[in-house]
UniProtKB/TrEMBL annotation, chain A:
This is NADH-quinone oxidoreductase subunit M. The chain crosses the membrane at residues 6-21, 28-45, 65-91, 103-122, 128-148, 160-180, 200-222, 234-254, 266-287, 294-313, 325-343, 364-386, 398-417, 438-457. Belongs to the complex I subunit 4 family. It is a multi-pass membrane protein. Keywords: Membrane, Transmembrane, Transmembrane helix. The keyword Transmembrane applies. It comes from Flavobacterium luminosum. Signal peptide: none annotated. InterPro entries: NADH_Q_OxRdtase_chainM/4, NADH_UbQ_OxRdtase, ND/Mrp_TM. It is found in: Endomembrane system; Membrane. Residues 122-407 form the NADH:quinone oxidoreductase/Mrp antiporter transmembrane domain. Pfam families: Proton_antipo_M (PF00361). The keyword Transcription regulation does not apply.
Automatic annotation (TrEMBL), chain B:
Belongs to the complex I subunit 2 family. InterPro entries: NADH-Q_OxRdtase_suN/2 (IPR010096), ND/Mrp_TM (IPR001750). The gene is nuoN. It holds the Pfam family Proton_antipo_M. Keywords: Cell membrane, Membrane, NAD, Quinone, Translocase, Transmembrane, Transmembrane helix, Transport. PANTHER family: NADH DEHYDROGENASE. Its EC number is 7.1.1.-. NDH-1 is composed of 14 different subunits. Subunits NuoA, H, J, K, L, M, N constitute the membrane sector of the complex. It comes from Flavobacterium luminosum. It is found in: Cell membrane; Endomembrane system; Membrane. It catalyses: a quinone + NADH + 5 H(+)(in) = a quinol + NAD(+) + 4 H(+)(out). This is NADH-quinone oxidoreductase subunit N.
Automatic annotation (TrEMBL), chain D:
It is a multi-pass membrane protein. Gene3D superfamilies: 1.10.287.3510. The gene is nuoK. Its main location: membrane. It comes from the Bacteria. This is NADH-quinone oxidoreductase subunit K.
UniProtKB/TrEMBL annotation, chain E:
This is NADH-quinone oxidoreductase subunit J. The chain crosses the membrane at residues 6-24, 31-48, 54-76, 88-110, 140-161. Gene3D superfamilies: NADH-ubiquinone/plastoquinone oxidoreductase chain 6, subunit NuoJ. It is a multi-pass membrane protein. Belongs to the complex I subunit 6 family. Its main location: membrane. The keyword RNA-binding does not apply. NDH-1 shuttles electrons from NADH, via FMN and iron-sulfur (Fe-S) centers, to quinones in the respiratory chain. Couples the redox reaction to proton translocation (for every two electrons transferred, four hydrogen ions are translocated across the cytoplasmic membrane), and thus conserves the redox energy in a proton gradient. PANTHER family: NADH-UBIQUINONE OXIDOREDUCTASE CHAIN 6. Signal peptide: none annotated. Its EC number is 7.1.1.-. It catalyses: a quinone + NADH + 5 H(+)(in) = a quinol + NAD(+) + 4 H(+)(out).
């Protein structure tokens, strides 16, 4: 069995969902995403058993392009994250009544398909195709099923699309250039290239544009807050939970090993930018009136730290980055789902119109609380492991990076607690707040279970990703 | 050669059919006939033949492009049936003109003598003048025809001047003889002047900046189907002919000439896309988009490997997307005076299939994978990098980014707005052409080698 | 066997927590209280097991290795526990006092609808505290460290309908987090220098002179960072302001968390890492200075506070300052001694004040109390004993521990001794002020309150009595000359601390201290018993008293220096930077669109113009190709 | 028989026809009357024809002259179509002033 | 009178009449000048000894095309000087463009002009009606036939544009 099975399940699942009709769509989508998750687990088992799940077929002979995938621990981890989160996200939306649900869920699955493809591709061309493909469904999800004012939404979403596309086109240029050097776009052959520092600089820069916008790294983040705010929650979860991991993953998989010299020479610039993002995102989050926007800025801060860890080029940094990517994926889905639950009941995203929810629904409050403290990196949660490794790797570069980057644990607490206080605590609101349903709480339970389990016992993930990361570090250090 | 004859006969037959009141048969017969001709054209695929004192040369290039033209013509004729429903008396004329257009086009890609080339381009031009002005009572159509006619004749004069100079310096119109002379003996410099004037004339025909001004006005004013013909068919015919001319006539690569082409191509990409941003008329927007695509196709002249392949793939992708686009546009703007973007409001809800086709076509033209437009751009840019024209690649990238801006205006209209008016039911044939376009688009995206390796 | 018992020790409160969370509502209040208390009691009993084992075999601390937790390139962090003298000692009073306070809470919180939640949080707190103490490396300590912070947050904001309480909770958490960042950075430095975070490895490294001399600067920095962490948790200058605000929580919480256990975590950590601090004498000096300053500062604020719990809170800060003074002087076991005695009497005082507040239905302002001595004799007497203890009256426990600190200070640095002494004189004054205002004189509350005045039930008084006894006799564990505690802790410290001999200086100092305490008590007596003074209302406060009452305006200063600029910055970023970035991106589109709009002018519909462009284009190409 | 160009020189013919061509171009640019623009285009084509014949003489080759026939046919066809368009415009607007045709722009 | 003189005279006439065609206000005058111009070009053809071509030229241009144009002018009743006054800018632009084009093209050709001392003279007949006929119907048979399609298109086009269209209601 090779990894293409997951892609096939998701792609045809998307079609099946569309043809299942509006009523059945969500059920089918859930089944499909579960199936893809199960298949991912099967791939994981296969990997653990030492059997390769790679495949390679010739696709285009001129220019030399393959349908190739190389599934190492890192890719499997990301694949599992994607399929698991897709399942959770689909399940979380069961209470929503979408217009044209078949289209909606088909797009969700299609997006999952593209994202899994991005993670497993071993040919830059294929990778690029998946990378771009992932953009289309989210564009429509946000555009058609989004909330807020239509004109504002259009403006924001189109900006998001064009902005990200612009970045990735520069990446494409870099790939084309690499192709002209290597004669192939297979990742292994690209790794073999010996580029001059000048060339590496440009290639690194082109990649950086693409990834900095996608992740996003300060100051390329301007699309983020509005897009998150105006997308439907499912879209926001997909964007923040998985899609921005695509950028981070790509940094690790493509950018650093392909241009190690440039990475080393200009490391500090990118570290500084990432860390500015951490502080900046946190500070801006302090004064947000919109819950989803606040969470968006918190996401900016968190991924800034992840990016910074990756740019330390050390095993600790990379491992911390990957761990934190996974942890952040779950946490951010949980947080946005909490926002969604509130929005379902109160029909608003404005923090000023919330408050006192804890009195009305303590169960929800507790679960929201746990996810929130996980997001601020409380030890014992998964996020702490990542944050710890990241900050440690930053410390190994320069103590000031660790100190300034570490302010996230203070500022994160400040805005998160403030948000929690204004949203959940205080006197009961006049508006009714229906208790959280079993279906909704299941989402939280799963997320919390994951966060706590891996917070205490991250070894399985560690063992999975470490060999792959060691290989990447070796490639970074080959010059 | 026989293709040309068969096409001409078919054209005459359609005219005769009108006389015998076979009006209903015209479109089916033309389509079936063209399909037959298509098969006949493709069958001797690897042939390399000369006909009638080298007037016609049949090689892979000509066969491939001829076949492409035939396919496009078939689709256009399919659309004609519905488009000219209101004026049934003239359908034979329109179909015949389209078939003769095809004859001109075939001559333009398989000429062995500049006389054939010249006549081919004149048939093409004159037929298009007629088609552009064919809505006689519509002043906009008149204006479009007139503008196109005046400027086209001007360009024809320049092309003729160019041919004359080539003749003056070599003493022959025969391409093979010219090739031999230009590669062996000395010849007056007029030859290059002639070549450049030919190039300029053809740049006009493909609507490259700064010879593009006619295109938006004419595209907007001309009847919808004519716009489709001009933007998809005529543009790639002219481009293919230009490509063939340059490859045959140019003795060796000239840096100055390449630079000129780079500047023109870059300007076309940028101007076309930037100007398209502020357009509200779909046809006009498509004209500007076409200008930028002309810039892209023009860049194939700069590359040394696979250039014919790249051009052919690009042309196919562009034509297929354009036809699907127009199939939807023709339907949507059917009863409207102006083809504004508002016409697409709410199409995503009312006609999801057409909206999907439209979206796919637009995304393809914007260069989003997995649609063929992406591969076209990728192949082109890839070869451009190999040819060391990185500057042009960057400009092309920037132009592509800009292009997304206006392509999305239509998508936004389809999916975020709602329409107030009821659209008539979708004519079967439009849907068929649209879906066909979509299938080909995705098909050659999934298996690009099928098209890309055709020319070896 | 040991591993299992250790797990029971750790997990018992956690199961209590789980039970109370999931079944608390259904189980009923009695069961909730019982389970909550019992789970801590189980921990206490387990601790006793280890205590006896350790006594039997002092050189063999129990190490429980569970699993590999965090992997880093150079080292791994294991999830493992260390049960040596220090941790067992700490566990003893954490779980011991914890049990008592749980017991107390059964009655105290009985009327609260969310009692199950209260016990859940309390259990969770004990769990994290155990984790903090038992961890065998700094990262496990950090789990507990942050975990207790979280519980503190939850418990301070227990009555979450009141946004002021929530503010206080938030403030506590955030100020703790500031310290936590310091701790974390300190951790990194330690990891970097010693290649591990395990206490054992670090301590071995600390005795490796080569390693130490190569990294002396970093080690000092690490010590500083760790100390910053301690100032957060243990409420020292500059991060002490959260503790008085934390009194917003229910009183048992104040007793357990904000007096007896959590706030001593900083002292625990410094003691744990003493080998590191020993390598950085300049940081030790800093600790001593900060400790002394905090002691006197907090004591001076305590002089004029009218909220009974606030007084105790400042007293706590002040006492913690004294402990840090001891730490700074390198007298770790003395600091530990004071931690223990302080835990006894301060817990007793808080619980006593809780008893008073309970009796007055939530009244905390001492100006509205008075004369409760007769109505609440047990509360009065237990509190009196504790007050005497904290004031340092012979032979109560506080006398011994405080005296040791001052003695050490006197030996190393006279100014520090003076400051410490002033602080303890102040302590005696404000504690007796508290006692007089609360228990003596006439009742100043409302008639209705007076009507309901009563002694608290046995569940409340029992812990008071136990704690009062401990406060009285706690000094026995470390009498000068023959200190059980020093012997007990000796395996921890490489260099044996010479026992103080009771020489003349020592006696003199004891006398001075006692006299000082008596002076403080005397002033209080003359003011509040003789003159029957009642503190003035807030608005009437004047001069320095007002400054003291407003805590030297430190909160306001922090507000001006940190909070407001941060808010302004956030505003500024949101309103300008964000807009600017956003507009920059849009600008590309706008420029393109503007060019497009302007370009329409060229596309003017005139054939003549089009041809002109054609001709000019053609001419330029010809010129470029053939004439240039 | 001697080549006639020996007496006149091909350059003279080239200059002549270039100038004639430019005059034609000038006419198209300068005039707004569509009919006169047609005539100007005819002048341009004639200039080229003249050149073709000159080159034909230069090379002593008939092909150039044969090409002139094609060129004439094209000219005739163009004029026919052009006039048809013109007539239909005239019917619609009553004018043949090109400047009136500015509805399509922007 | 040398050939050169004749050439100069003819060239002068050609250019002058061509220019007058362009600038005459009255379309009729333009047409007449154009006819004169055609005749002078015919003169050039005769100078080249291409009698047949000259004949055809006169017949086609002066005979057919000009008649068609004149017929149209008459039909539209345009024989008056009704052209609106053009703006100075547009006149200036046209003049500048003309000057530019003229200058550039002449300069280009002067620069590119080869020095031809001896023009080849085959001595054979290459432009008699007989030879032209042979070339046209042997080598150039295909283009010759192709022209018929061109004319057919033009014809259909002219009909299409002129005939009354019946629309189905």
């Amino acid at each position: 069995m090779n990894v293409s099975i997951i892609l096939i399940i998701l792609l045809f699942g998307a079609l099946a969902t569309y043809f299942a009709g509006d009523k059945l769509a969500k059920t089918v989508a859930l089944v499909i995403s579960l199936a893809s998750f199960v298949a991912s687990v099967a791939i994981l088992n296969q990997h653990n058993a030492g059997i390769s799940s790679d495949f390679i077929y010739k696709w285009i002979s001129n220019p030399n392009i393959y349908l190739a995938s190389k599934v190492d621990g890192l890719a499997i981890a990301m694949m599992l994250l994607t399929t698991a989160l897709t399942t959770i996200i689909v399940w979380s939306s069961f209470a929503n009544q979408f217009k044209n649900a078949k289209g909606f869920y088909a797009l969700v699955l299609f997006m999952s398909f593209a994202m899994v493809g991005t993670f497993v591709s071993a040919d830059a061309f294929l990778y690029y195709i998946f990378w771009e493909l992932a953009l289309i469904p989210i564009y429509f999800i946000a555009l058609v099923w989004g909330n807020g004012d239509v004109e504002e939404r259009k403006r924001a979403i189109v900006k998001f699309f064009i902005y990200t596309l612009a970045g990735s086109l520069f990446m494409l240029t870099a790939f084309i250039y690499l192709f002209s050097k290597a004669g192939s776009l297979l990742i292994d052959e690209l790794y073999l290239l010996r580029l001059t520092e000048q060339e590496q600089f440009w290639i690194f820069g082109a990649f950086f544009l693409a990834y900095a916008i996608k992740i996003p790294i300060f100051p390329f983040h301007t699309w983020q807050a509005n897009t998150y705010q105006l997308s439907p929650s499912v879209g926001t979860m997909l964007l923040s939970g998985i899609m921005l991991k695509m950028g981070l993953y790509s940094v690790i998989r493509w950018q650093l090993p392909l241009a190690p010299l440039a990475a080393k020479t200009y490391m500090n610039i990118f570290l500084v930018l990432s860390i500015i993002g951490v502080v900046y995102g946190s500070i801006v989050a302090l004064k947000q009136h919109n819950l989803k926007k606040l969470l968006a800025y918190s996401s900016l801060a968190h991924v800034g730290l992840i990016a910074a860890g990756a740019y330390t080029l050390s095993l600790d940094g990379l491992r911390g980055a990957v761990l934190q990517m996974i942890a952040h994926g779950f946490v951010v889905v949980g947080l946005f789902f909490a926002a969604e639950i509130i929005e379902r009941r109160l029909n608003t995203q404005e923090i000023a119109q919330m408050g006192g929810i804890r009195i009305l629904d303590t169960k929800f409050a507790s679960m929201f609380m746990i996810v929130m403290v996980a997001s601020v990196g409380l030890p014992g949660t998964f996020n702490f492991i990542g944050e710890f490794s990241l900050l440690y790797s930053l410390y190994n570069v320069d103590i000031w990076y660790a100190v300034i980057g570490g302010t996230t644990i203070i500022l994160g607490a400040v805005y998160m607690l403030k948000m929690f206080q204004n949203v959940m605590l205080g006197e009961a609101n006049a508006k009714p707040f229906a208790a959280i349903t079993l279906q909704e709480s299941l989402v939280f339970v799963i997320i919390i279970a994951v966060l706590l389990f891996f917070g205490l016992y991250p070894k399985p993930i560690n063992d999975l990703i470490t060999p792959a990361l060691q290989e990447i570090v070796a490639k970074i250090n080959r010059v | 050669m026989n293709t040309l004859i068969a096409i001409s006969i078919l054209g005459v037959l359609t005219l005769i059919a009108e006389i015998f009141n076979g009006r209903k048969l015209i479109v089916p017969v033309a389509v079936v006939g063209l399909l037959g001709i298509l098969g006949y054209t493709i069958s001797p695929y690897n042939a390399y033949d000369f006909f009638f004192n080298n007037m016609m040369v049949v090689d892979k290039f000509s066969v491939a492009f001829s076949s492409l033209f035939i396919v496009i013509t078939i689709l256009l004729i399919l659309l004609s049936h519905e488009f000219y429903k209101d004026v049934p008396s003239t359908i034979s004329d329109f179909v015949a003109i389209k078939i003769f257009l095809l004859a001109g086009a075939v001559a333009m890609v398989s000429f062995g003598n500049l006389a054939m080339f010249f006549l081919g381009i004149e048939i093409l031009s004159i037929a298009l003048y007629v088609l552009a002005a064919s809505k006689r009572l519509d002043l906009r159509s008149n204006e479009a025809g007139m503008k196109y006619f005046l400027m086209g004749c001007f360009a024809s004069g320049i092309i003729l001047f160019g041919i004359t100079l080539v003749y003056g310096s070599t003493g022959t119109f025969d391409t093979i003889a010219i090739y031999q002379i230009s590669h062996s003996t000395t010849f007056p410099l007029w030859f290059y002047i002639g070549l450049v004037m030919l190039l300029i004339g053809m740049l006009f025909k493909i609507a490259a900046v700064p010879f593009h001004f006619w295109a938006p006005d004419v595209y907007e004013g001309a009847p919808g189907l004519t716009t489709a013909t001009m933007s998809t068919f005529a543009k790639i015919v002219a481009m293919a002919a230009l490509f063939k001319l340059i490859t045959i006539l140019l003795p060796s690569k000239l840096y100055e000439l390449d630079l000129t082409i780079v500047v023109v191509a870059a300007l076309s990409m940028l101007v076309g896309n930037i100007m398209a941003l502020r357009q509200n008329n779909v046809k006009r927007m498509f004209a500007f988009s076409g200008i930028s695509h002309a810039g892209f196709m023009l860049s194939t002249l700069l590359i040394s490997n696979n250039s014919a392949n790249v051009l052919f793939y690009y042309a196919t992708a562009y034509a297929v997307a354009g036809l699907a686009f127009f199939a939807v546009v023709l339907y949507v703007t059917k009863n409207k005076k102006h083809e504004t973007i508002d016409a697409f409001n709410g199409l995503g809800k009312t006609h999801p299939l057409l909206a999907l086709v439209m979206t796919a076509s637009l995304l393809s033209m914007a260069g989003i994978p997995i649609l063929s437009g992406f591969f076209a751009k990728f192949f082109l840019l890839n070869e451009l990098v190999q040819a060391n024209w990185l500057v042009l690649v960057i400009i092309a990238i920037i132009a592509s980014i800009i292009s997304v801006g206006y392509y999305f205006k239509i998508i936004l209209a389809m999916y975020t707005k709602s329409s107030e008016e009821e659209l008539p039911s979708v004519p079967m044939i439009y849907a068929v052409v649209a879906v066909l376009g979509l299938i080909i688009n995705i098909g050659i995206g999934l298996a690009p080698s099928f098209i890309y390796d055709l020319l070896g | 066997m040991e591993k299992n018992i250790a797990l029971v020790l750790v997990l018992a409160p956690f199961f209590g927590f789980l039970f109370n969370v999931f079944f608390g509502k259904k189980a009923g209040k009695t069961l909730v209280g019982l389970v909550g208390t019992a789970s801590v009691l189980v921990s206490f009993l387990s601790t006793l097991f280890f205590f006896s084992a350790l006594n039997a075999n002092p050189s063999q601390p129990v190490v429980v290795d569970l699993f590999q937790w965090i992997s880093l390139e150079k080292f791994n962090v294991n999830f493992s526990f260390l049960l040596d003298q220090l941790s067992v000692l700490w566990l003893l009073f954490v779980t011991g006092i914890g049990t008592l306070i749980h017991l107390y809470s059964i009655s105290y919180m009985h009327d609260d609808e969310n009692m199950n939640k209260f016990f859940a949080y309390l259990n969770l707190f004990v769990f994290f505290m155990i984790m903090l103490v038992m961890g065998s490396n700094l990262v496990i300590l950090f789990i507990g460290w942050e975990g207790v912070g979280l519980c503190s947050y939850l418990l301070i904001g227990f009555w979450y309908k009141n946004q002021d309480y929530n503010d206080a909770a938030k403030k506590a958490f955030i100020m703790n987090r500031i310290g936590d960042l310091g701790l974390l950075v300190g951790l990194f430095i330690v990891a970097y220098v010693f290649g591990s975070l395990d206490y054992k490895v670090i301590s071995e490294g600390a005795y490796n002179t080569q390693l130490v001399s190569n990294n002396s600067g970093l080690i000092a920095l690490a010590a500083l960072c760790l100390f910053i962490g301690a100032t957060g948790k243990s409420a020292q200058i500059p991060l002490y302001t959260w503790l008085p605000d934390a009194m917003a929580g229910p009183t048992p919480v104040s007793a357990l968390i904000h007096a007896a256990t959590m706030v001593t975590a900083g002292i625990f950590m410094v003691t744990r890492m003493h080998f590191l601090f020993d390598l950085a004498p300049q940081i030790l000096d800093l600790i001593a200075i900060v400790g002394a300053a905090t002691a006197v500062l907090a004591a001076s604020i305590g002089l004029v506070q009218n909220d009974i719990k606030k007084v105790l809170a400042y007293s706590t800060v002040s006492q913690l300052g004294l402990m840090f003074l001891a730490l700074g002087l390198g007298a770790y076991e003395i600091a530990v001694f004071h931690v223990i005695t302080h835990a006894f009497f301060k817990a007793c005082l808080f619980l006593g004040s809780g008893s008073v507040i309970h009796a007055l239905h939530g009244e905390q302002d001492m100006r509205n109390m008075g004369g409760l001595r007769k109505v609440m004799p047990i509360t009065f007497w237990t509190m009196m004993i504790s007050t005497l203890a904290i004031s340092g009256i012979f032979p109560l426990s506080g006398f011994w521990s405080k005296d040791e600190i001052l003695l050490t200070a006197f030996h190393s640095n006279i100014p520090l001794w003076i400051v410490g002494s002033i602080a303890s004189i102040m302590t005696a004054f404000y504690m007796f002020r508290l006692m007089y205002l609360t228990f003596f004189g006439e009742f100043r509350g409302t008639e209705e309150q007076k009507h309901h005045l009563h002694e608290s039930p046995a569940l409340i008084t029992f812990p008071l009595i136990v704690l009062a006894i401990l406060a009285a006799v706690g000094g026995l564990i470390s009498l000068p000359g023959n200190s059980w505690l020093n012997h007990y802790l000796a395996p921890l410290f490489r260099k044996a601390h010479e026992a103080h001999h009771l020489d003349a200086t020592a006696y003199a100092l004891m006398a001075v201290a006692t006299v000082g305490a008596l002076i403080g008590i005397g002033i209080a007596y003359s003011k509040y018993i003789k003159k029957q003074e009642v503190p003035v209302q807030d608005a009437e406060m004047k001069g320095f008293a007002s400054v003291l009452y407003h805590k030297y305006y430190v909160d306001e200063a922090y507000d001006v220096v940190v909070v407001t600029p941060l808010k302004k910055l956030s505003h500024f970023f949101r309103n300008y930077f964000e807009v600017a970035f956003s507009e920059t991106v849009f600008a590309f589109g706008k420029i393109a669109n503007a060019i497009g709009t302007q370009g329409k002018v060229l596309q003017n519909g005139s054939v003549g113009f089009y041809l002109l462009a054609f001709v000019i284009g053609m001419a330029s190409i010809l010129v470029y190709l053939f004439l240039v | 028989m001697e080549n006639i160009l020996q007496a006149i020189g091909i350059e003279n013919y080239i200059f002549l026809s270039v100038m004639l061509f430019c005059i034609g171009a000038f006419g198209v640019l300068y005039r707004r009357n569509a009919i006169i623009m047609f005539m100007s285009i005819e002048i341009m084509l004639n200039a080229v024809n003249l050149l073709l014949v000159a080159f034909s003489t230069l090379h002593q080759d008939a092909e150039g002259q044969v090409f002139v026939f094609f060129s004439m046919a094209v000219a005739a066809a163009e004029v026919a179509v052009g006039l048809a368009i013109l007539v239909s415009i005239f019917r619609n607007t009553g004018s043949i002033d090109i400047d009136n045709l500015k509805n399509l722009k922007g | 009178m040398s050939l050169l003189t004749i050439f100069y005279i003819l060239a002068a006439v050609t250019l002058a009449t061509g220019f007058m065609t362009v600038i005459s206000k009255n379309p009729i005058h333009s047409a007449i000048y154009l006819v004169l111009c055609f005749f002078s070009i015919g003169g050039h053809y005769l100078l080249f000894n291409a009698q047949f071509l000259a004949l055809v030229h006169i017949i086609v241009y002066a005979g057919a095309i000009m008649v068609l144009i004149l017929f149209t002018i008459m039909l539209m009743n345009l024989n008056k000087e009704n052209e609106p006054i053009k703006s100075i800018a547009s006149v200036l632009a046209a003049v500048v463009a003309f000057a530019l084009l003229c200058f550039v093209m002449l300069a280009v050709f002067i620069k590119a002009m080869p020095q031809i001392e001896n023009y080849q003279s085959s001595g054979q007949d290459y432009q008699s009606i007989k030879v032209l006929g042979k070339v046209l119907l042997n080598e150039y048979m295909v283009p010759f036939e192709f022209v018929s399609i061109l004319l057919l298109v033009a014809m259909i086009g002219a009909v299409l544009l002129s005939k009354k269209q019946k629309t189905v209601e």
